[in-house]
Amino acid sequence: MQDFVDAFQFIGEHTALLWRLTLDHLALSGAAIGIALALAIPVGVILGHAHRGSFAAINVSNIGRALPSLALISIGVAVLGIGFVNVMVALIVLAFPIVLTNAYVAVDGVDQDAVEAARGMGMTGREVLWKVELPLALPLIFAGIRTAVVYVIATATLASVAGAHSLGDVIVDQATYRLPGVLGAAICVAVLALLAELLFAALQRAVTPRALRLEERGAPLLGDLATNERTAST
Amino acid sequence: MAEPVIPDFGRGSSCVRENGTFCWDWVNAHWGDTLRPALVQHVMLTLIAVAVGFALAFALALLAHRRGWLTTPVVLVTGLLYTIPSLALFQLLVPFTGLSRMTAEVALVSYTLLILFRNTLAGLAGVPEEVRDAARGMGLTRRQLLWKVELPLALPAIVAGLRIATVTVISLATVAVFVVDQGLGAPIYAGLQQTFKTELIAAGALCVALALATDALLVLAQRALTPWTRVARSR
Rounded CA gap, B210 and B214, in Å? Predict the structure, then answer.
């Protein structure tokens, strides 16, 4: 327990350092997430809207999960060299499949009766997408974003071995910071990941239409199971 | 005139001496002393973590299946563990279990719990009520109902959970190198520290191959264990 007391003392004494690394950590994660979302959501939504490419869209996340983050970052280093951009590319590669699969499954799985009804009302394909499919798919798309955000924040910790700065700098440098420093930084990373999870859980709730929220109340905690199962069992 | 001094770069193929991006010779030469042992350790790390994690999660899921109020606290605690970044969790366990394999296993087990618990419970909850009624009508006891009806029907969901958990553990076990010098993380980390990258690329590729092969194996196992799902599909 003394180790943890020392760890909190370390946090108190090195607040400036930890704060700076937290900001680096967030900058790296934020850049990677932003680009991954910009690439993956349109592709997933369009494929889901057209109900095409389900094999690829679903299996890409299975393969993505199999990629060991440490290996991917390391291979990125081998091929691209060290630095911020290369770690960011590795993080994008890790986040992309999660977001893509969720976006695809979300739009593809929208109640076909609702889509039919919208068509019957004379909506064009684009209107169906924007006014029916996207609002209904939003909660599940957000579930994917939330998973990806937490995953990227966790993995950004490993960026330190590849020359980018993050809270991992302290964690992997026990020679300099000793065990209290390592534990202190580990606590910071854990808190950061938990805060991100809570923030995005709240956002996900906020974008869920009220009618769907009521429906979910039966099994709110088993929420993202549907995606897990679908990504896994195909 | 004196002979020019040619520096001796030691033995090894021209590819290794010239620091090529990927040298098959190196892989051949070091398969036995570096890559194979690391691969075997990695498989062991994974097997133990998934086996222990499954035993725990399965027991918890059976309990929660009978007593519904348990679901919320279990999901909250395992979800909390699941959210903590791996590198941080490995280090946070060091004061308790030291730089040991135990530390690696405890952390890896904690990452399997949420997935396995949630999938097992969802599988059990997904059994149609009519099937349960029919089984009860045939005079099955609660225990028989669970083992002969509910669990077989939940098997696809359980295996789906096992697939996610196993692949996740194979990937995360590379990070265990920061607390214990075992598994494929060791050659990956060694490769990071040097300019010669073959070791790193070979170990990373092995890790991905292991994950994909294990995933395929579990799919085959599920097909063999649930023949009825195939019949239903072929109709």
Answer: 6
